[in-house]
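Let us practice reading a record.
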Amino acid sequence: MTELEKLNRFTRREHQAEEVYLFDVVLCDNDVDRDLECFSEEALTAMRGLFVGKTGIFDHDMRALGQTARIYDTALIPEAGRLTKDGRPYVALTAKAYMIRTASNADLIREIEGGIKKEVSVSCSAGRRSCSVCGADRSGGGCAHVPGRYYDGKLCCTVLDDVKDAYEWSFVAVPAQVSAGVTKRFTGEQEVIMENEKALLDEVEKMLREEVLVLCGRENAISKALCMAADKMDIGELMAFKRALLAESCGEAEVQLAGAASESPDGAFRMP
């Protein structure tokens, strides 16, 4: 069965290659994540079937307005020689997703191609959460083992198992699983690896950030606030900020904020 035949199972009419945008996603894996949890291999096997046909959204916002893509195929992919943090052979649950090309999602497709929209997170129902050291059910009182500590050389974490349902997958800024995200994209049937493009984009962002910091220039309170703000910007914001700085700093004129620079509760300076 071809890629188009697989995805057309979920459409109301048959679509052609030029009408769709296809890309691969690492949904999750069996490695220990930032929350000191991991999926068992049995859980990944169950999710492989459950995620076929599931929709992709943003930040786990369940409103239909945020639906942006749909999974049409999944696979379990081991990585030879790679081990999880607790010493097991590494396995990833990957998915093939599609979007219908429209004027409204053209920018999203460009962001996926540029590596901006990349990280993803999954939402599912795990019926069992057990200790990796002793197997005790953490939902029912657990045990004395502390996640993150080693016991006789074995890393303690919480193993997620008995997955009964998969709800959705989302583009997020910081996924719990470090390796989860878009790995490559497809144009029609043509596979294109994105590693070179991402490396180039990172280099451009680095150079742009350095240029902006030079433009902020002077050692006063305003310039320091501008530097702190620039340090938190993405590449699109940096480009807009550079244009504004160039416009405002002609000659000897100092860069001025539209009003006083204000500090947000988390300590980051925000442009009004």
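A brief commentary: The two ends are 53 Å apart (CA to CA).
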